Amino acid sequence: MLTPDQFRVNEVWIALRVNEAFLFVKDEPYDIYVLIDAASAYVLGHILSRVVDEAPREKDVEALFTKAWEAKNQWAEQLIVTENSKAEDVFRTQAEQNGLSVKIVPLSELEPIVGPLKESFASHFMGNVT
Asked: Which of 33, 39, 53, 97 could form a disulfide with 9 if both were Cys (CB 3.0 to 4.6 A apart)?
């Protein structure tokens, strides 16, 4: 199990889908992907991805990484992507282009870091209590 105290701020970023159920915008289903700092659980940014597109668009992921860099003025050393993520390839490509190593981790291993964010999202934006 990975916990925030195992990392330094800006050492590792985590990319994951934050929603369990689709978010509907004008009757179109979307997923929401976030990029967060593993040590602080600070959300560096998010993108919406149409479910029919399967994975986020490359230009959206590139913009997300640019926003993260602008917030921190440096790149993380590593990006963690959740196992079995349909967005793995696009996040991996962007991470590697910016010099980050990539590690694939089961979502369950990230629970202490991302659990509160996923719960907050579910209750505040999706109307669910987990």
From this structure: 39
